[in-house]
């Protein structure tokens, strides 16, 4: 089943040799679950920071620029493996459970507006999407929440307040003397963007930072939608006039709205496996040559999950945000 | 005059409605006509004095480069959140 297809994909001559620790492939399978080891977790999640709350996963957004034309598939490079964020305990233990518990839902963001979607949904966008024709397949790559019936994966909260760090001061309890001191927060380095948005502002930009959502790593899900067509509202006529003025000006409005249909939504881990089957892996995850390690390791962990006798995962009401 | 190397990045956070006319005059001189508007001014004693007059209303940062209006507008534009993976009528890759 899944293991056969994965094995066939591994042995496919297209792909370069997998990492050594996976050869021979069958030898790594054991009844002991290694799903939560660091090597089996995708790099964006390997070292999520410990100081964030257990429900949050710190996301490392490593895309170079979102201004690249969509036709040239954006090359998603692996997350910064040098200093990846720390992984919180709940994410480490529950991500495989979330992945195995389909169907999934997602809060996708189009132009920063959230849309709660699942596979098979029909979405009427509140705007007319330009330069697309009915039948075009869109890949939605901005999401803040990915969840299943009982578990939810959220991106870490990142938005700072309106005031720049140089303006605010925080009271810090000095560990050595126990006294409260006032410290001015350091201004961020120019060119460094915490939110990792498409253009890097050279310094803190309050009105851009305020109200922004932080997103999950794009490699954690695959969400495709087809453009079904364009709908238009009934004709509305607004009459504009003033009191004791006989002239009435009429303004017509007939807005158009694009209809999308979500044709597939793959949760974490499953996305990697499915991508290998369809051969779109190199486009989705930047796997050119050599493929990134985590895709193999994650598929191995998935096969281990299915090989385990019966569901005996972590208890349902865990910290990782149950519904 | 030499090109200034450092700039004040001034953002109006609080309105001057109800405040003396002099205060709103200072904001107008700085170019802050509405809330959350951001302007860049070189670091000079004049500008520093103006900022000091309205220091309770603004957020100030010292930066190296002044962004133009076009650059700021580009920064405001949100991510589209999607890209066209396949056009209608195209063949799927690999099939």
UniProtKB/TrEMBL annotation, chain A:
<dbReference type="InterPro" id="IPR028909">
    <property type="entry name" value="bL21-like"/>
</dbReference>
<protein>
    <recommendedName>
        <fullName>Large ribosomal subunit protein bL21m</fullName>
    </recommendedName>
</protein>
<dbReference type="GO" id="GO:0005762">
    <property type="term" value="C:mitochondrial large ribosomal subunit"/>
</dbReference>
<feature type="compositionally biased region" description="Basic and acidic residues">
    <location>
        <begin position="53"/>
        <end position="63"/>
    </location>
</feature>
<comment type="similarity">
    <text>Belongs to the bacterial ribosomal protein bL21 family.</text>
</comment>
<dbReference type="GO" id="GO:0003735">
    <property type="term" value="F:structural constituent of ribosome"/>
</dbReference>
<dbReference type="InterPro" id="IPR036164">
    <property type="entry name" value="bL21-like_sf"/>
</dbReference>
<feature type="region of interest" description="Disordered">
    <location>
        <begin position="38"/>
        <end position="88"/>
    </location>
</feature>
